[in-house]
Amino acid sequence: MSAARISRLAVIGAGLIGSSIARAAREKGLADTVVVSDADPGVRARVRLLGFADVVAETAAEAARDADLVIACVPVCASGAVAAEVGPELKPGAILSDVGSVKGAVLEAMAPFVPPHAHLIPAHPVAGTEFSGPEAGFAALFENRWCILTPPEGADPEAVERLAALWRGMGANVEAMTARHHDLVLAITSHVPHLIAYNIVGTAAHLEETLTSEVIKFSAGGFRDFTRIAASDPTMWRDVFLTNREAVLEMLGRFTEDLSALQRAIRYGDGEALFAHFTRTRAIRRSIIEMGQETAAPDFGRRPAPGAAE
Ligand SMILES: NC(=O)c1ccc[n+]([C@@H]2O[C@H](COP(=O)([O-])OP(=O)(O)OC[C@H]3O[C@@H](n4cnc5c(N)ncnc54)[C@H](O)[C@@H]3O)[C@@H](O)[C@H]2O)c1
Ligand SMILES: O=C(O)C(=O)C[C@]1(C(=O)O)C=C[C@@H](O)C=C1
What residues does the Prephenate/arogenate dehydrogenase domain cover (predicted)? Predict the structure, then answer.
């Protein structure tokens, strides 16, 4: 199915994800006009300087006016407020979407504000970094990454295809599933791993002062990787854990049981159990690499760190 071209694309929230979408849409010519808005006047001023938007709108409502597609790129708990602001502006046939890391809560928060003549199609690009803000985005962020669409029951297939076409245009591979299933899968693949990183880095920080400074001095490999993840945006991750509570607690329960089994194997010197476990997990890493998805941690070879000389 060929999807109709996007005349006006409105991006609400110009941080890492919103600015990456605006840059990719402009660079790849996916929309005639890219309008960007952000609640923070300082961010709007930086977007003007960075020049990745055709228009910088003062409000979300102004950005959404006459847009074919509006994408909320804000922390999950702000998605309802954005929908309330843009809902009355949505023209017939317009699509309202988002990029939130949790989908059930977003659907619930946004749906009441979408008029019957418009379409709500939530989405989640499974691509990101530990950086935030308009300087952190880059057009190649979504290339060869998944974008998961979670259309509600009865969603218009043409609208779904139109949104899917935009994500494919930005280089993503698109898949659709229910919001509930998304939240369960992402709880184990993304949310619990972030919690583990926040926890282990916190534990290191709570050690006595001399030990903490040695942890920092000698950190390499494993711990260093955790510190990258634990540097991720506090607002974003607070919202993820507040809104995907049930699935995260379910996966954390399983995680804790498995950790206890490993702890027991160490206590009783059960080398066979440890070896069998590590062999199974090594195979999972290999299958991820074979699927070409091993780059969950972004490499700086693909883009400069914000603030670094280009
Ligand atoms: N960072 C990642 O790795 C990543 C990856 C995939 C999806 N996501 C999701 O994308 C969304 C945005 O994340 P980000 O990393 O781009 O965050 P960010 O902090 O870089 O940017 C968020 C922007 O939203 C603006 N904002 C907040 N409330 C607003 C409102 N009510 N109206 C207008 N603007 C508002 C903020 O001023 C900020 O500029 C989150 O829901 C997050 O879960 C993030
Ligand atoms: O690589 C990173 O920095 C990320 O954490 C990206 C990551 C992930 O967990 O894979 C984080 C949250 C998003 O919802 C999607 C992607």
Answer: 7-296
The band of 287, judged by pLDDT with boundaries at 50, 70 and 90, is confident
Residue owning the nearest CA to atom 37 of ligand 1: 40
> Tens digit of pLDDT for each residue in 19-57?
999 999 999 999 999 999 999 999 999 999 999 999 999
Taking residues 58-65, report their average pLDDT.
Answer: 98
Domain range enclosing 203: 182-290
Determine if ligand 1 sits within 6 Å of the CB of residue 135.
Answer: no
In a shared domain, residues 157 and 244? no
Q: CB neighbours (10 Å) of residue 242?
A: 13
Any idea what the CATH number is for the domain that residue 61 is in?
3.40.50.720
Residue 231: Cβ within 10 Å count: 15
Ligand closest to CA 130? 2
Residue 298 lies in a domain: no
Task: Find the 91 Cα to ligand 2 centroid distance in Å.
Answer: 33
- Probe ligand 1: pick from 89, 236, 240, max atoms within 8 Å of CB? 236
Å from CA of 134 to ligand 1 middle: 10
Report which bound ligand comes closest to the CA of 21: 1
User: CB neighbours of 272 closer than 8 A, spacing ≥ 6?
Assistant: none
Rounded Cα–Cα distance for residues 95 and 271 (Å): 55
Q: Is 288 in the pocket of ligand 2 (CB under 6 A)?
A: no
Same domain, 92 and 214: no
The residue whose CA has the least distance to atom 15 of ligand 2 is 126
Residue nearest atom 11 in ligand 2 by C-alpha distance? 128
Cα(121)–Cα(178) distance, integer angstroms: 11
Q: For 84-94, how does the pLDDT look when each residue is reduced to its tens digit (9 = 90+)? A: 999 999 999 99
Q: Both 58 and 156 in a single domain? A: yes
- Strand ranges, E, within the chain: 6-12, 31-37, 55-57, 69-72, 95-98, 119-120, 123-125, 146-149, 173-176
Total domains in the fold of the chain: 2
| Interface confidence (ipTM) of the complex | 0.99
Q: Is residue 231 part of a domain?
A: yes
